[in-house]
Write a structure and sequence with these properties.
The chain is of the alpha+beta class. It contains nine helices and 16 strands. Helix 2 packs across helix 9.
Length: 399
């Protein structure tokens, strides 16, 4: 990742989206969730037991930080190995073996060598960016449907300005201020902020060659100069430009490739808020220095993003400025595109949490059943319990 951020080559097999800890490792380690499932507290205690601060078990907005989360995930991996589990790095799932409607095996590739592993139960936790897996599953006839999701940009302000807006003064000993905003516009469209990173960075999250993707992160101390957040437009399935289960996924890819073409590199297209609202291309920064690595390409985001998104942002940014003073300051930086907020598909499952392909358990954010680290972990526990139930090892909710 460090090599790519410094301008090196993208590795499609190992990047922000695919690697130990998945996309969550490089998206700040936020553990707050709207999930009220009792399993959530077990998840938080496990994070604390593996090196996260004890405060994650009681904070309203628990946060680990990418720098700490890397070690937490490594500790979890080591416990899995100590308990007899096996982890196969650099191994890709290329196919499923299905006989009479039931799973019997998984086709893998490791180091260029193909292997078929006998498998009658598979928890399929592929993440929201596993496009080759979505295509493979669709080709096999695994029931899926397109689902609503959101796309937009990252917006960056000086952290000191967010502190003043939220605290009314310099923050002093208080933590860096955050925010969570949304607006419903008169025409029925809506926009909101997501994954707000106080003192954080906008960073490169591409997973396919020839595409630009942005995301945000912060370290545990949250001591960077800028605050950033995703500024997303809610998209309904009827907004998608076409038909078919994978149309949303292909729309993401089209936008990411347009951004790469615009910058002729993995630099991200960027525009000042003031210029965007005046429909004027930007030529450089003012008081807010963009944090994105490997760098930005100043210009016009309307050349990259579809009108369905830019039209909503045009009206949403001033409206959000009414809710948070300075949000619409002309010097703020918009960097895009932010396309990977959640999965563009849902892999269907029944009350046993299995697909119509028996033995296949679609799980987590990639399958369309979670929206963050904690909710995905809870869904993973539910799927694990369902597998145990199928093996008649679970009785009355207790192991």
């Amino acid at each position: 990742m460090e090599t790519f951020r410094k301008g090196g080559a993208l590795n499609p097999e190992s990047n922000v989206q695919f690697g130990e800890g998945g996309a969550g490792t490089f998206s700040d380690g936020k553990l707050n969730t709207g999930t009220h499932d009792k399993r959530m507290f077990w998840v938080l205690r496990e994070f604390a037991a593996h090196g996260a601060p004890e405060s994650v078990t009681y904070d309203a907005k628990p946060h680990i930080g990418t720098d700490v989360l890397v070690d937490v995930v490594r500790s979890i991996r080591e416990e899995i190995l100590a308990l007899g589990g096996e982890i196969r790095f650099e191994t890709r799932l290329d196919g499923l073996i299905i006989q009479n409607g039931a799973l019997t095996g998984a086709a893998l590739t490791h180091g260029g060598q193909a292997e078929t592993v006998p498998c009658r139960r598979l928890i399929l936790a592929i993440g929201h960016s596993a496009r080759d897996s979505f295509e493979m599953l669709h080709g096999l006839g695994v029931p899926m449907e397109r689902k609503p999701f959101s796309m937009g940009v990252r917006i960056e302000h000086r952290q000191t300005e967010i502190d003043r807006a939220q605290y009314g003064r310099e923050r002093g000993e208080l933590p860096p201020a955050d925010y969570s905003l949304n607006v419903h516009l008169p025409d029925g469209t809506s926009a909101y902020t997501f994954c707000m990173c106080p003192g954080g960075k906008v960073f490169a999250a591409a997973s396919e060659a020839g595409g630009v993707v942005t995301n945000g992160m912060s370290y545990s101390r949250r001591d960077g100069d800028n605050a950033n957040a995703a500024l997303l437009v809610t998209l309904r399935t009827e907004d998608f430009p076409g038909e078919g289960v994978l149309v949303g996924m292909n729309w993401q890819r089209e936008i990411e490739r347009a951004a790469y073409t615009y910058s002729a590199s993995y630099r991200a297209p960027a525009q000042l808020v003031g210029d965007f609202l005046e429909n004027c291309p930007s030529t450089g920064p003012r008081s807010v220095q963009p944090s994105y690595e490997p760098g930005v390409c100043w210009g016009d985001l309307r050349q990259v993003l579809p009108a369905r998104i830019t039209a909503v942002l045009q009206n949403a940014i001033p409206a959000l400025g009414q809710k948070l003073r300075g949000f619409d300051t002309p010097d703020a930086v918009l960097t895009g595109p932010e396309t990977r907020s959640s999965s563009p598909v849902r892999i269907l499952r029944d009350e046993t949490l299995q697909s119509a392909v028996r033995g296949l358990y679609p799980c987590g954010e990639g399958a369309g059943y979670a929206g963050g680290i904690t909710s995905a972990a809870v869904d993973g526990l539910r799927c694990a319990e369902a597998v145990l139930e199928s093996l008649e090892l679970l009785r009355h909710g207790n192991l």
